Amino acid sequence: MGIFIYNVSPNTANITDNSFIGCRSGIVVLSSENVTIANNYCSYNLEYGIVANIADGIVVKNNTCNFNQNDEGIELITQSPTVVH
Fold first, then answer.
1. 2: left (phi > 0), else alpha (psi -120 to 50), else beta?
2. N or C: which end of the chain has fewer CB within 10 A?
């Protein structure tokens, strides 16, 4: 696992300027709100580059997620607005 964010307080997690290469998944956000994921390189991982599940108000911008084994670069499963650039 590259980085796993679970149940953090709103607006407290900011994942920026990292490289996750050859991990199970690059960035996983679960049960968290208003997390910003920006300027990361998540490639050649076994599953996802970036995945957010039960995570609302996520901002995902300027990330490179390619060549992950299951062909999933970014997967977002949310119920409230999410911004992707």
1. alpha
2. C
Residues 6 and 31: beta-carbon distance below 8 Å: yes
- Smallest CA-to-CA distance from 31 within 77, 83, 63, 62 is with 77
- DSSP E strands: which ranges in 1-85? 3-6, 14-16, 19-21, 27-30, 36-38, 41-43, 48-53, 59-61, 72-77, 83-84
pTM: 0.91
pLDDT tens digits for range 21-43: 999 999 999 999 999 999 999 99
